[in-house]
C-alpha cells in the first residue's frame, strides 16, 4: 500500500486567545506561542493557529480587520506569518483572518497556508458560512458581512497532502472526503475553527471523529481559547484525532499548546484492517470526489 504520509511528523496546535481588539497584540501573541511550541518540540513540521486569531470573531468587526491577501504586496498578517514560517522552517496553517478582495469589496474568512520558506502556498476561503439560529442557544449570521469561498483546498507538503477547511466546513462531509480521496489523497484535514459553548459540547468531538473515521485520516481542529470577556465564547478543546477516531491530544478551555505525532503506519494499518476504499459500492451511489 503506498503511504499517503511519507514519514512520521510532529504537529503543534496553538490554542490562543486572539480576540483582543489590537491586531498587532494578537499577532505578537501568536508569535510568542509558536516560539514556545518550537522550543518545546523543535522538530515540529506543521503548526496550526485558530480561526480568526488576529481579530474578534464578530460579524460587525470583520470588515474593519480585513486585509488584502497578496503574496507580493504582503499585508500585515501575511507578512508576519510568512516570516514565522520561514524562521522555524515549518508548514504554517495560519488559522484564518478576515480578507477583503479589493476588486469586489467582498469580505472572506480566509486561511492562509505557508511553506517552510515562508511562501504563501494557498488560501482557503470558508466555503460554508456559519448562519445558525438555535433557540435558547446562539444566533450567528456570518453572511451578514462575509461572502463564501468558491473552491476546495488541498495543499501539497513535503510529507503528503493536507486538506483545509474552516470550522463550519467540517459539518459538510463532502469537503473532507474530496480531500481524502484520490487524486488528492490527503493524510489529514486541518480545520482552524471556533465552535462555541453551545455547539461545541454538542458536536465538536463527534464531527472530528466522524470525519476521521469516514475517511481514515487524521483530523486536526484548532480553536481559540475561551474568553468570557469577548462577545463570542469559543469552545476551546483543540484536538487531534487519528484515523481510528481516537483523540490523541486535546486542550482544555484556556490558552494552551497541544502536540502530537502523526504516523503513516496508523493510517496504513487501519486501512488494511478495515478496507473501506476497496469496498465502496460506486455502482449504487456516486463517488463525490469525481
Ligand atoms: N463558528 C463556526 O463556523 C461553526 C460552529 O460554531 C458550529 O458549526 O457549531
UniProtKB/TrEMBL annotation:
It comes from the Eukaryota. PANTHER family: NITRILASE-RELATED, OMEGA-AMIDASE NIT2. This is CN hydrolase domain-containing protein. GO terms for molecular function: omega-amidase activity. GO terms for biological process: asparagine metabolic process; glutamine metabolic process; oxaloacetate metabolic process. It comes from Arxiozyma heterogenica. Pfam families: CN_hydrolase. Keywords: Hydrolase. Residues 9-264 form the CN hydrolase domain. One of its GO terms (cellular component) is mitochondrion. CDD domains: nit (cd07572).
